[in-house]
Amino acid sequence: MIFPSIYLASRSPRRRELLQQMAVDFAVINPDIDETSHTGELPFDYVRRIAIEKAQAGKALLLEADLKPVLAADTSVVLNNAIFGKPVDDADARRMLKQLSGQTHQVLTAVALATNQQTLCQISANSVRFCELSDADIDWYLQTGEGQDKAGSYAVQGLAALFIESIQGSYSGIMGLPIRETGQLLMQMESNA
C-alpha cells in the first residue's frame, strides 16, 4: 500500500517508529493542547476528544494551502473507568503501578486524521493483564525511568513486558499508534480526496 504524505502531531518516538514501519512519509509538528480531562468525561470520549484536538491544532499550524493531512493520537490506560495518563512524578507512577498489579486494564488509543475538510477518528481498545508486582518490582522499574512519559507509567515494548501476563488486541495500539486503524484512516482519506 502507498499512503499519502502526512504531518504527525506528536513528540512520541514510538509513533514515529510505527509510521516508519508502515512506510508512511511524514514530518513532525508539535501543537500544544490542554490534555486535562473534563469532569465526568468517560475514557473513550476523552481519548477521542484529545486525538481530534491534537490533529485539528496541528492542522491550524499549517498554511491553508498545505493540503497534507495531520495525524494525531492519544493513549490512555484505564482501570475501573479511571484514566491513567502520564505520571507527574515517581510517587504518581508508583501509585499507578500498584493499582495495575494483578489486574486487567484497558489501553485505549484514539487516532485522528485532520484535513482541510474533515477530521476522522478511530479508537483501538485493548486489554493488558499485569502479574502481581512486589514493591521491589516497582522500585526496580521506577529506577529504569522507562515509564516516566508513558500512559499508565509503563512501556509495553520495553522492560515492563516482564510484568505482562497477557494482551488482547493490538500491540501497536498499546504502544500508542494502532497500525490497522491508522492505515484505514489514511486509505479512507485517500478515497475521499
Task: Outline the secondary-structure elements.
Blueprint: E1 6-9, H1 13-21, E2 26-29, H2 43-60, E3 70-79, E4 82-84, H3 90-100, E5 104-114, E6 119-130, H4 135-144, E7 164-168, H5 171-175, H6 179-192
Parallel strand pairs: 1-2, 1-3
Antiparallel strand pairs: 3-4, 3-5, 5-6, 6-7
Walkthrough of the structure:
Strand 5 and strand 6 (119-130) form a beta hairpin. The protein is of the alpha/beta class. It is built from six helices and seven strands, in the order E-H-E-H-E-E-H-E-E-H-E-H-H. The protein has helices spanning 13-21, 43-60, 90-100, 135-144, 171-175, 179-192, and strands at 6-9, 26-29, 70-79, 82-84, 104-114, 119-130, 164-168.
**Regions with little confidence, pLDDT below 50 for 5+ residues:** none
Mean pLDDT: 95
Gyration radius from CA atoms, angstroms: 17 Å
Overall geometric form: elongated
First and last CA, distance = 16 Å
Question: How would you sum up the major sheet?
Answer: 7 strands, mixed
- What is the strand content? 25-35%
Q: How many β strands by DSSP?
A: 7
Helix content: 25-40%
- The helix-and-strand class reads alpha/beta
Number of helices: 6
- Run of helices and strands: EHEHEEHEEHEHH
